[in-house]
Amino acid sequence: MNYLHIIIYGLTALAVFLIFVFLKDTKNPKTFASKNKNLTYVLIAFLLTISFAGLYTRFIEPNILITKTQSIDLSNMEQPIKISFIADIQIGKYKKEKWMNKIVKEVKKIKPDLILFGGDLISNEGTLDDIKYLDTLSILTKNYPTYYILGNHEYGLGGMNISPNKSTGDRSLETILQMNKIGAKLLRNNFDCLSLNNQKLCLFGIDDLWGGEINFEELKNWDKNATLIYLTHNPDGISYWPNDIKKPDLVLSGHTHGGQIYLPIIGPLGNPDVKLPKKYWRGLNYFDDIPLYTSCGAGESGANIRFLTPPSIDEIILK
Fold first, then answer.
1. Which of 120, 160, 204, 262 would give a disulfide with 308, using CB separation of 3.0 to 4.6 Å?
2. Residue 42 CB: number of other CB atoms within 10 A?
3. Residue ranges per domain, the chain?
4. Angle, nearest 10°, between helix axes 37-55 and 3-25?
């Protein structure tokens, strides 16, 4: 059990216990609770909120899958292109076949022109056979052009708070073989172009910053008149873009999970080991005039908890 789960269970149990004590004491005229009933009821309301927040964070929000729609204006787009972007499914430890079916169902509702997976398809904290759940994605790859990049979890780098014997290790090769089998194309320091809605769209994806080796040599073959989407699992990948090459039109990333826990004013929590400021951890922002969209992800890392950051599939509309 993750230590964050233990903290949530402990705080929830303590809150419930104190509510029971306060309610019992209100019936005894000699107690503080009875003599200060208004204050006691305020404390009970606060403890109820704590209890609900704990249960919601652990058991409800992680199981909610939403679709976020983001329109992005690009100067060289003549016809809209709809992209389904899914990052950080991390199938295995917490989410399995039922969750994959849910993702497929939501993507089919979007009816995208293109599907992009932003890395961390699997979790390195599950079991060695969890990769089999990726088979479910074949329902999508048969009907839509599909590309993917690798993330740190494919390389066995993630959940750093766990002991090595609980990690499945480097599963990048197995992931590649499985995704090849279902017809998804890997972008690993290479690019590909396709025609969508009578216009050319190019994709370039880099290897994972932590576990892979990155280079931009293939960009020498890029027709700079074509729209280019740059995929990097870690949003820090935007900082690696070569200064002597034209900037990409759009950058798509994941990895941060939006912090998984989001608190008003404070912002996203968690520690994804990202160098970019927290504002780049979720949603659409601009880095050196380049639109950078970071997904909150469809799965969880470390602990199976989320608060004000539900698992999401991103519908990106280029227009």
1. 262
2. 11
3. 3-61, 67-318
4. 150
